[in-house]
Amino acid sequence: MPEQIPLDLTEGDPFGPHNLPYGVFSRPGHGSPERRVGVRLGEFVLDAGAAAVALSSPYVSLLAQPTLNPLLAAGRTTWSDVRRALTAWVTVPAHRDVVEPLLHPLSEVTLHLPFEVADYVDFYSSENHARNVGRIFRPDAADSLTPNWKHLPIGYHGRSGTVVVSGTDVVRPSGQRKAPADPAPVFGPSVRLDIEAEVGFVVGVPSDMGASVALSDFREHVFGLCLLNDWSARDLQAWEYVPLGPFLGKSFATSVSAWITPLEALEAARVAPPERTHQLLPYLDDSAESAADEPGGYDLRISVAINGHVVSRPPFSTMYWTAAQQLAHMTVNGASLRTGDLYGSGTVSGPEEHERGSLLELTWNGRDHLDLPDGKRTFLEDGDVVTLSAWAPGPGGTKVGLGEVTGRIVPSA
């Protein structure tokens, strides 16, 4: 039997030519410490810049870079052209001799944050999650949702400087906390450290200040998506959030996957969002007949594991507010977009208990516990490793792998 080579992928590989997510890598162990744009193919990464040079591609200036930002800014037509070229490079036999030496095993490279993050915004767009949170903290309320929830996608601004790539350790944050029975606040490490399983959307094309982005222009601006873990210190958050919302309980770290999946790779995963129960204002209204041909939801199958043990499988298809609606709302006041803007979907939670995307919900704010092979958990302990992974339906019954985002909790500094 001939030796298997990188281009000979196993049938059904979720990182086949139908996927081709982008990342940034280096090979410090091979005398190549500089960062380079790469494209994942199976368990290998293609040096996209070197391939562009070797094949005399017109896209050298976009791919022979240490970050994805130049490609992000190039626009939708160019994104499609580059993707078409990459697909040819890894599938056309005539390119084989050139491409194969430029494929490097993932086990031999270091993956980096794939783009320079401009602004970071996080939303709160799962009805299941919002209702669970409402039931936990407002058990006597007539409605578990706040009055505005069905009328607009609620969000807040985070810290772009603390967005880190998968595999980066997360230091347990310290801050003020005050339990209901405490006479006064105390300072110290968070004792209720949590996760939020989310999907991040990466903006490519900027917009002008003073101009809003319509629902129909979503794909003109957003390049792709990644997995995102919005780490949350629930005790810090509970004490600080009134009246202006999250601050130190959220800003200490946000982890993203090393791979950005182009929206173009996810056409087969597009689905209609849940039925709307309230009339939406025109800039958010996706109920028009044209929306049937441009469904705004995505069928992404997420799993959450703690120390290798799966604790939840949140379905992204249940998200009430779509990424297009989030973008429209984020810019409706004239706030501009910048290349490298990142916005999170908000915690993804389904209707079932095993589909909840945070420990806050899985343990009902610490009332219950999770039984793991290495012990019980209500919130995260030092040394815990959290991994989010996901896939989406692809063309012809294939799967599109979305990679993973992982982080290990280390003690407070």
From TrEMBL:
Stored InterPro entries: Fumarylacetoacetase, Fumarylacetoacetase-like_C, Fumarylacetoacetase_C_sf, Fumarylacetoacetase_N, Fumarylacetoacetase_N_sf
Residue intervals of the Fumarylacetoacetase N-terminal domain: 18-114
Binding site for Mg(2+): 230, 250, 254
Cofactors (names): Mg(2+); Ca(2+)
Domain of life: Bacteria
Pfam families assigned: FAA_hydrolase, FAA_hydrolase_N
Keywords tagged on the record: Calcium, Hydrolase, Magnesium, Metal-binding, Phenylalanine catabolism, Tyrosine catabolism
Protein name: fumarylacetoacetase
Catalytic residues of the enzyme: 129
Domain Fumarylacetoacetase-like C-terminal per the UniProt entry, residue ranges: 121-409
Listed pathway(s): Amino-acid degradation; L-phenylalanine degradation; acetoacetate and fumarate from L-phenylalanine: step 6/6
Any Gene Ontology biological process: homogentisate catabolic process
Protein residues bound to substrate: 124, 138, 237, 241, 347
Protein EC: 3.7.1.2
Binding site for Ca(2+): 122, 196, 198, 230
GO molecular function term, any single one: fumarylacetoacetase activity
